[in-house]
Amino acid sequence: MWCCVLVHSGNPHVMGPNSRNLPKILGVFGSILEGASVDEGLLGRIVAIWTRMQQAMPAPMLAQLWAMLNEQQRGALSKHMAVPVPTL
């Protein structure tokens, strides 16, 4: 859960320069959500971060980020989407 706090706060050490680590972070979140049992508190935090990302990012950037994820990660995250991710 601490990682979620750091991501939610936009910690520059976690996010990297120009948010370069976002694909890796989102991939980790997708992998976590693939798991059979995810703590409700952790699930809520990940969903909140994911929803905020969807609302804040321009559509082309979001589509590019989405394309970097593997099929399983996209499937796990898509269950918790506020809006569909645009395709490139």
Task: Spell out the blueprint of helices and strands.
Elements: H1 2-8, H2 12-15, H3 22-34, H4 40-56, H5 59-67, H6 71-78
Structure overview:
The chain has 88 residues and is mostly helical. It has one domain. The protein has helices spanning 2-8, 12-15, 22-34, 40-56, 59-67, 71-78. The radius of gyration is 12 Å and the shape is globular. The model has no long low-confidence stretch (mean pLDDT 84).
What key phrases describe this protein's structure?
88 residues; mainly alpha
In short:
With 88 residues, the chain is mostly helical. It has 6 helices and no strands.
Secondary structure tally, helices: 6
Task: Flag low-confidence runs.
Answer: none
Through-space gap between termini: 32 Å
Rg: 12 Å
Number of extended strands? 0
In terms of DSSP E residues, the strand content is under 5%
Report the average pLDDT across residues: 84
Helix content: 55-70%
Approximate shape: globular
Oligomer: single chain
SSE string, helices as H and strands as E: HHHHHH
Count of distinct structural domains: 1
Report the major sheet. Answer: none
Given helix and strand content, the structural type is mainly alpha
